[in-house]
Amino acid sequence: MAATVSAEHFGLILTLLACLFKWGISMYAGNEVDTCPETKAAWDQRSSSQSATCGGQSEYHCLQDKEGRRRELCLEKSRILEGNCPIVTEKGYLDWKPCNVSINGCPETHFVSNEVYQFPFCFGDNTPNPNRHKKREPEDGIPHVTIAVIVVVLIAVCGTVLGLFFYMRRKGSREHVDDPESKGLLLVEVREQSREEVVEDYHVEQGISVLQRNDTLLITGKLGSAVTSTAESIMKEFIKSGSEWKFRTHKYTDLPVEFESKTVNFVYGWFGLYNDDPCSVGKVVLQCKHISNAFKYKSKKHVKFIIGLRSDFHSLYHKELEQFNEDLLHYKVNLDSVDKRRDEGYVDHYEKKIKALCKISDCQCKTLKIDMLERKEIKIGIPLKLAILANDHELIPQFMAMKTFKKTLKTHFCSLKRSDEKLYQIIMYVCLKGELKRSEEVDKDIVGNLHFEITKENIGEKMETLEKYIRMRKSEKRQSVAPEKATYIFWHPFIYICAFHALFESNPDEVMTYCNIDAILQLVRPERENREDYFTVSASEARVKLFKSRLKPEELQDYAAHPLLAQ
After folding, report:
1. Final residue before a domain boundary, out of 68, 97, 127
2. Nearest Cα to 307, choosing from 216, 179, 388, 210?
C-alpha cells in the first residue's frame, strides 16, 4: 500500500516543487523596481499592467520600503494623514513613516495611499539609475539575494516533500484502523474548536503594527467576517510585547467611566448586535466622544482602543461618524478586502478542519467548493460560514440544496419543531429572552402563553444538545463561573437572527409581545416600508400596536424616531 500511495503522489510532489521554486523567484524578482511613477498617467499605465495580479479591493501601489527600495505590489488603499509617507513592510503590509511638513515635499494634506504619486518625496531617490543595484551582484550576474531566496525555497521544499512522505506513510498505516474510542476523542476536539472563525495572520500583524504606533485601530467587516476574533488575536499578541499591558472587552453601551491605564480596550456592538437600531445613533456619538476624551489625559494614563464596527453600519452612518475620522477611525483594517492569500487560507481551513475530518466517503462535503459560499449570500462573511459548517456538519447537504445559510438555518430550526419539539421550545425560549440563565426558573408567562412545556430540569437534560446553538458568556467563562450558574447566549448573533426569523414566521404575535425589546428594535420593521431586507422581518400595524402597548411612556419617547413608532 505504501508504494502505491507514493506513486500516486509522486507527480503531485514534483508539481509542488516546481510551483514553490517559481514562487520563491517571483517573491524576489516580481516587486522591486528602480522607480515609481510620479504622475497620474504613468501610475495608471503601470497599474493597468498589474491588473491581472490585483483583484477585489486590492489596488496597485508603488511604495518605498524601510530599506529605501521601491516595490510594486497590490494593497488595499488607505487614507494617509498629512506629515506621513506610506511605506511597505518587509512582509508586504502598508505602514506609515512620519516626515517633517516643513521639509519641501513632505505631504501637507491627507491623501489616499494609491495616490502617493502626488508626493514624489515619499519615493526617496526616485531617479532612474542602471548602476544602483550592481554592487549587490557577483561576477556571474545573479544577485546574492536571489541566491539566498532560492536556497531558502529549496530547503522549504525539501522539508515539505519529507513531511508529505512521512504523512503518507502514516496515513497508509492508519487507513484500515477503525477505533470508535479515538473517533470520539476526535469529535470532542473538533467540537471545542468548531466555532473558531478563521483569523488571518495578515490582519493580525497589520493591526499590531498600527497599535505599536498609534492609540486607535478600527476593524471593519461584514457580519461574520471575524471582527471580534481578529481583535482578540491582535490584543493577545500585542500585550506579549509588554507585560504591563492588559486588555478589556466592552460593549459600546457599557463603557466604564474611566479606562484603566496600560489597557487595550476592544469596543464592539456599535449600533446593535444583530442589526442596526436607528435610535442608537445618539448614544454611539456620545460614546465615541467619551473614548476621544480619554486621550486628553495621556500624561496620566496610556490607553489604546480597537473599535470593532460592521462595515455596513460604517457605510450607513458615515456622516454621523465623520467627526471621528481623524482620531478614532483613521487607522483601519478592513476584513472585507478580497485577497488571494485570504481565499487560499479559507480553502485550506475547509479542507483540514471540515472535509478531512469527515469519514463518510460519499458525503456532500467532498463536492463543496469555497466559491459556493460567496455566490448568493454576501451579507455575511466566509469565516462565519465555515464556522457554521464545522459546528454542524449535517447542515452541509441542506446548504447545498438551499444555497443560503439564512434559509438553511431558519429551515433547520423549523424542522426541530417536528423532530425534537422540546429542544425547539428551549431554543425559541432563549430567543425570546435573549439569554438563558441556568440558575433561574423558566419565565412562566412566556412558557404559558406560548404553550411551551419546558422546565428548568428539561433545559438541564437538553444542555449537551443545546451547546450546538448556545455558549456561555465569554466574560463568565474567563471568570470560571460554574456552568449551572452561568448565562448562555447564542454562539453568534447570526444564529440568533435565524432563530428569530424562524420564530417570527410561526409566532409573530408572541414575538412582538414577549421578545426582548432590543431584538425587536433591531430586527423588526413596519410593513409600510415595503422593502425586503436580509436581516429584518416586517410587522403589520396590528403587531406594531402589540409592541407599543408594552412600552413605558419614557421608552415611547426614547424610541420615538424608530420606524416602528414613527407616525
Report:
1. 127
2. 216
